Structures are given as structure tokens and as C-alpha cells.
Amino acid sequence: MNVAHIATTRRTCKAFDPARKIPDSVLGDLKTVLRFAPSSVNSQPWHFVIAGSDAGKETLAATLDGALAYNAGKVRAASHVVVFCARTALDAAHLDGLLAQEDADGRFATPEARAGQANSRNFYVGLHRDQLNDADAWADRQIYIALGNLMQAAAALGVDACPMEGIDVLALDKALGLPETRLTVRSFTWVSRLALEQRS
Ligand SMILES: Cc1cc2nc3c(=O)[nH]c(=O)nc-3n(C[C@H](O)[C@H](O)[C@H](O)COP(=O)(O)O)c2cc1C
């Protein structure tokens, strides 16, 4: 793989052919890239929603009007649309889940190493939440790592992408029921998304 070639030939796709669909195997690779994206203290302050059906994409596209209408056609025509959501709070349930998964993955050679990871993560979560007051911005920074990795992987796999910040975050939250639900999805907010298609 020639990374300089990928960097110099990748470009943002502004129009998508609805007839072109990302093969399942390629989509699986892209999901893996998202799931394995690195984050500070492995906090994983995100949730990714992928719309591949016409109905799902329409739910997203319908939120884009007025000055944002120029992005709606891309969402409707793209093979898949990835919505990047941020957790608005890294609560105990999330942090406990991370630690249990890291344990199951064999990341800790000793109980002390496990405790050290928990302490370190708790320190940083508290630092951003209580002292720096930038927990949302901290989460967004992690999410943009995942976004960047996905764009680069898509280019390497011959999949065109268009990152979009031209979205109505509040309308998307409402369309997907994020403010109302009592499930974990309530703590997500939209930050960006990609529209993808398989290059011929
Ligand atoms: C974070 C981010 C947000 C963007 N938002 C939009 C958008 O809402 N709509 C759009 O058509 N392009 C969007 N773009 C694409 C940029 O316009 C494009 O990346 C830039 O012009 C450079 O072109 P290139 O990616 O082909 O090198 C966005 C790009 C980035 C990185």
C-alpha cells in the first residue's frame, strides 16, 4: 500500500450514484476501522449509527433544509451514511463496561494493572468534566480520530466519502429520538458523518 498515493488521489466526493453499493465485506472492514479507532485512555466516547436503507437515509436527509439542503442529495444517494455520535457523559456504566471488555481482551497482566487503568481513566474523565470543563470537546476530538481513520480507510478501499459538518445537530437528535430516550443513546449527540459509495 502506498500511503502517499492514497493521500494524493483521495478526494471528497460531492455527488453519489445511488446504483453503487458498498459490498458487505468492504462495509465490514470499515466498521472494524471504526470499532478499533484509538481514543484517549480508551474512553471510546462515541456511538456510530450507519444508515444503509432508503428509509434510514431519508430520516437523516429530511433534517437538512435551508442552508443545509445542499447536503441532502448526498445523504439520499450515498450507499451508506455514518453518523458519529458523542456520549454527553462518560457515566459509571460506560466506564465499567470498558474495563470489563479490556479485561476480557487480556489487556491486564495483573490486578494492579487493571486497577491502574481504571484509576488513570477516572482521573482523565474527572479532569475534563470537573476541572477543564471541556468534556464535550474532549469527546469530539476522539470522534474526529475515528472519522479521519474511516476516511483514510475508505480511500484505501476505493470507497469515496464526503465528510459533512453541514448538518443540523439538534434536528438529527430529534429525528432519531436521542433527547427523549432513557437508553444510553440519549447521551449521544451528532457531530459529523460520512456519505460513502463504492468507486468503480
Ligand atoms: C470536517 C469536515 C467537514 C466537511 N463538511 C462538508 C459538508 O458539510 N459538505 C460538503 O460538501 N463537504 C464537506 N467537507 C468537504 C471539504 O469541503 C473538503 O474536504 C475540502 O474542500 C478539501 O477537499 P478534498 O477532501 O477533496 O481534498 C468537509 C470536510 C471536512 C474535513
Structure, explained:
There is one protein chain. The protein has 200 residues and is of the alpha+beta class. The chain has a single domain, classed as NADH Oxidase (3-Layer(aba) Sandwich), CATH 3.40.109. Helix content is 48%, strand content 16%. The protein contains eight helices and four strands; from the N terminus they run ααβααβαααβαβ. A four-stranded antiparallel β-sheet has the order 1-2-4-3, sandwiched between helices. The longest helix has 22 residues. It is globular, with a radius of gyration of 18 Å. About 6% of the residues have low confidence. Bound molecules: flavin mononucleotide.
Would you summarize the structure shown here?
The protein is an alpha+beta fold and 200 residues long. The protein has helices spanning 3-9, 24-35, 54-61, 72-77, 92-104, 111-131, 135-156, 169-175; strands spanning 46-51, 80-87, 159-164, 188-198.
Notable characteristics:
NADH Oxidase, alpha+beta, 200 residues, binds flavin mononucleotide, four-stranded antiparallel sheet
Low-pLDDT segments, ≥5 res: 181-191
Molecular shape = globular
What is the CATH class name?
Answer: Alpha Beta
- Average predicted local confidence, pLDDT: 88
> By helix and strand content, what is the structural category?
alpha+beta
Strand order of the largest sheet: 1-2-4-3
Task: Report Rg.
Answer: 18 Å
Set out the fold topology:
Layout: H1 3-9, H2 24-35, E1 46-51, H3 54-61, H4 72-77, E2 80-87, H5 92-104, H6 111-131, H7 135-156, E3 159-164, H8 169-175, E4 188-198
Antiparallel strand pairs: 1-2, 2-4, 3-4
Helix pairs in contact: 2-7
The protein binds flavin mononucleotide.
Residues 11-12, 14, 71, 162-166, 192 line the site of flavin mononucleotide (FMN).
